[in-house]
Amino acid sequence: MSDVVEKTLTALPSLLSLDSQPGSGKLSSTSKLGNLIRGITELTSKHEEEKLIQRELSSIKEQVASPNTSMRQMKELMVRAIYCEMLGYEASFSYIHAIKLAQQGTVLEKRVGYLAVSLFLNESHELLLLLVNTVLKDLQSTNLIEVCMALTVVSQMFPKDMIPAILPLVEEKLTHPKEIIRRKAVLALYKFYLIAPNQVQHIHNKFRKALCDKDPGVMTASLHIYLQMIKENPEGYKDLTASFVTILKQVVGGKLPMDFNYHSVPAPWLQIQLLRILSLLGKDDQSTSEMMYEVLDESLRRAEMNHNITYAILYECVKSIYTIHPKAELLEKAAKCIGNFVLSPKINLKYLGLKALTYVVQQDANLALQHQLTIIECLDHSDLVIKRETLELLFRITNAQNVTVIVEKMLEFLRLSKDDYTTIDLVGKVAELAEKYAPDNEWFIETMNTVFSLGGDMMQPDIPNSFLRLLSEGFDSTEEDRQLRLFAVDSYVSLLQGEPGRLPQRFLQVISWVLGEYSHLREGLEPATTLRLLAKLLDMKHTSSETKSWVLLAMSKLCEGPDCVSLAQELSERHGGSLDTVLRQRVQELRHLSEDAELRASVLPRDAAQEPLEVDSSLSFLDGFVSEALSAGAAPYKPPHQRQEELAQAKALSLEPYGLSLPISMSSCSLADRQSPTLLSMSSGLSGNSTDLSHKGGSTTLKLDGVKRVWGKDGYLAQKEPVEESAQVEVPSPLCSPSRQGGADSTHSQTPTPTPTPEPEKEKQQLASSLFVGLGSQSSVCLMGKSEQTPQRFRRKAKGQGSSSGASEQISNSHYSTQSTVDNLLCNNLLDSTVTSDLAVSTPEQTPQLSQEVATTNGTCDAEQDLIEETDPGNSPSLIRANSTVTADPPAHKDPDRPKDSCLSSHLPAELAGLSHSEIIPLCSSQNLDLSACHVQKEDALLLVIFIENSSDSDIEQMLLQTESDELEVSCVTDSPVEAVRSLSVSVYQYSLMVKRPAAHVALAGTASYQLPSGESQVMQFSYRLPLTSFIRPLCVSTEEYGTLWLAFSQDTKQNLALLNDGQDPLTATLDVLKNKLQLHVVDIIGAEGIVACRLLQGQPCLMHCRVHAGSLAVWLRSPVPDLPDCLLYHCQRALQEH
Amino acid sequence: MMRFLLLFSRQGRLRLQKWFTPTPEREKKKIIRDMTTMVLARKPRSCNFLHWRDLKIVYKRYASLYFCLALEDQDNELLALEILHRYVELLDKYFGNVCELDIIFNFEKAYFILDEFLMGGEIQETSKQIVNRSIEASDMLQEDDNSDWYEVELFG
């Protein structure tokens, strides 16, 4: 009997593990590990488990330390230690033994040793250094298995600074006769490339060899490296396109061995990798794209099986097709493919369909229209992931008409979501949409209230910052500003009267700032009432001290009258003893200011929020202090990165390469380039908590571009246009494109339209109509089936540019008309005589006026300069001003620049003196040097002239100017660049500018470095911006030539422009305005159509075809240069608006 | 690139973890906790993809075991599902009708198979035959420590 029991018991473990294969034959369930595992499963409480593991660990510890333990036993112990670690108990005592096992064991023991090491240790663990030798030895081993293991562990985790030690050995393996070794070596190098790219730079040609390896596995492995390298520099690998295409063709054609098939699909991983590479190569590159059309088509065709893996390939294909230069036929197929995804009953495919739609919808909004009902269904899907993805899609198609519905949906989701990351992301998106498309003040303020309360203190700090800036800077109409501010004040007062305890700190800060600044706008609202509401915040338990100082600051702005004095006194008694020094300071300020109304008015003037604050960014007022300190023996200041470098050099072998470089925060980095002392002082003034706040400020600076300011100026302009658009949507014009009609059809076929629709269906349709309104408006644009920018997108872009130049644009606008005639004159006058223009050579009297006019126009640049300075610090200027007690530098430099203009222009080089130049505007200045610049339009060139004026008594040596620009090619014209600027003299630099990449406004940035007589070197930074129109010249072609050119160009854009109605023929009038303002050449006008041509300076043409249609001017632009049509269109729009 | 792979049971017990990028210990613990709670809370027949911070999580349940793979933004989710599937196939081929217990008791084998299949966060070998051949061959060493013979077996 006992025999039977025993037999059954011994059979148990094998039953447990279903032991039927040779692999599991040596089951360890009878072993100690098996005992441990079974022991744990029998336990019921966490506490018992802990006890058991601790016992186990101490027994392991004892055994590993014993000298009698054999390597075989050690292996077994390691496995148990790994198990304990996996359960979450630390077994750090075993780490060193794992390394020893990897070092000394036989092949099998080594394998466990390496495994344990890779599980236990991190790349930065110091014990890893002990492994380097083992790896070196194994890499040189004749046993292939050992080499394999070494390569695996190397790709797993290896100290970065030890890579050079083993790199030659790994490199050598690229030519190993066994493909498995070559493959692993390639992957190890890929890993090295990711963590230390410059260390493997010298082996790039060996990567090419790997790409050409006869073993497809090695070739596949090398693609990982290529994908990475091409991502970083697509230009450098265009020559490989043909090879990649050939490989893909062979793979798709089933030329690989069967081994590579996965569920009878040939090498899907390889296919997808290649598709990704191709899409990177073909992006914005027509000729490269043309090479891959055929194979993409074939991939689409071949992937027909109904299996996840084919869908994976299809998805990647679709993405490639929409990334590379478009081809109508392929786009059509891809769109159909997306349809299959979206309509699939499988939820995973639906999800990917939504993603694909999100990816392509900006190029082809019609696709979203086609699938609107599915999108609506997904929006109500029970799976939050699907819902979230749908919102992402809606975010992309938001316009001024559907914004309220979409934002409502997003907020609905936000209320459900508990995930911080999603909340931060969505809140940011809602804020962006609200600023961009808000239909009215009330909605905007209410939406932002929800954003602030839902986003809480997690949201990006730039959201409240830009919101406050929007309020303080205002828009065109002061009445509009006032309304918005009033709404905000009313809404906040009622919030504070409710339960302010629930509001997040950030929101309270916003509220107190707004109330402090604008509550006086509301008639009937006594300051005392507001003060009481604010004072209530100070007493709340959860109010942070940062918020308290915001509140106190707001109170200082408001306190007026005897009541307030007593309130201030009471507060100062209560908080005067606070441990927080900032708080104490604020309370003191409040008390003093409440007693002295005059002082308060001068320190905190009302309604001055938008006046820019003059900040001396070079901190020159500290120079005296610094030199004093230096002479007293203080060490000279070194920027943090320099200190880091020196520290790193001082250490012979740095064991902690990561730890050191991390602490350089944003703000301290920028401290070095002499920009951010301003930033620092401002943000510290903001809240008084200097270090961590300056950090926040730093991160804000980075995000301050474009978008945030968009709503300000043109947000209200947008209201007019959408109406026209929607009208177009509702009345489908006969011009409707096939794809648009297709869209309409498909929606019909999905819903049983003629029959009375059931209620929920109706709701959905209503929702659909409110969501997708305004999307198909430009459908006629898609005639070619080519991807186009949607009108919305264009307008947004235009707005971004328009508003970033801010109010200054207005200034230039008024002069625009005169300017362009002037430009035209200029052109005729100075440039080639072939320009057919009705204007004759300018008379001598005209010339002085000329230059003056051009100068005024370029006031744009000047104001833009101001603007850049203003936005740079990254915080709302008004907030800064509130802190004016700290930085009370009077605007000394404001006007003296103007007279400078005339004296500087005398320094213009002789050959340019006769030409008209733009206004000379100051770029930057230090106590020794002033940099100014202007541009001069020549027929064949655009010259940038930079004046360097040395106002000090000493000469400046080693003057070096460097410029860079994404959009411009800058070349120095001056033969021998000046190196020294004599005292009290002016040096002139000339640069010739060419457009590299068209943008509505092009800018260049530069640095000027020089050496003071004391030997100290200095660096200044500047930037210069000018409109693309400066580079545009008329292009004289005949109607026939125009026809040929038209067919040859591929980049095109369409848009409707406003038609001028000046009494005479509207088409001619409109074209004349464009011709005069933008220097276009009107080739011909035939009936209701006109053709116009122009070129960029270096000769790239842009053609424009205009047709009067339904009261507006339908223009169609074509050019060989991407972006040029869009930019020109932008300027056309502007020119007509200004007219 | 893949960031990490986790295998855990229905009870949220970790069965296998693989980190393809260096991750601090504390972070690992947090990720494991987040993943188990997130994935286990999913209703049946919802989609297999999730968002977590800036990563995409692809998970799939095989019997009592959850396989959970984290991807970077540009990676293909469907393909990742197939990576998981291929790994299960490999385990299945090796253990023969694999179940959770095989992986519990032989977790080191599961790691070895994984190391032959994925390397440095990318697919290394997609062929079932080749992966299995190399694993079985090195297992043979257990009985017969003759590397010559082994090399013949593994490398042809």
UniProtKB/TrEMBL annotation, chain B:
A biological-process GO annotation: intracellular protein transport
Mode of membrane association: Peripheral membrane protein
GO CC aspect terms: AP-1 adaptor complex; clathrin-coated pit
InterPro entries cross-referenced by the UniProt entry: AP1_sigma (IPR044733), AP_complex_ssu (IPR016635), AP_mu_sigma_su (IPR022775), Clathrin_sm-chain_CS (IPR000804), Longin-like_dom_sf (IPR011012)
Keywords: Coated pit, Cytoplasmic vesicle, Golgi apparatus, Membrane, Protein transport, Transport
Location in the cell: Cytoplasmic vesicle membrane; Golgi apparatus; Membrane, Clathrin-coated pit
Gene3D superfamilies linked: 3.30.450.60
Cross-referenced Pfam families: Clat_adaptor_s
Predominant location: membrane
Domain AP complex mu/sigma subunit: 1-140
PROSITE patterns associated with the record: CLAT_ADAPTOR_S (PS00989)
Coiled-coil segments on the chain, per record: none
Subunit structure: Adaptor protein complex 1 (AP-1) is a heterotetramer composed of two large adaptins (gamma-type subunit AP1G1 and beta-type subunit AP1B1), a medium adaptin (mu-type subunit AP1M1 or AP1M2) and a small adaptin (sigma-type subunit AP1S1 or AP1S2 or AP1S3).
Annotated family: Belongs to the adaptor complexes small subunit family.
Protein name per Swiss-Prot or TrEMBL: AP complex subunit sigma
Organism: Myripristis murdjan (pinecone soldierfish)
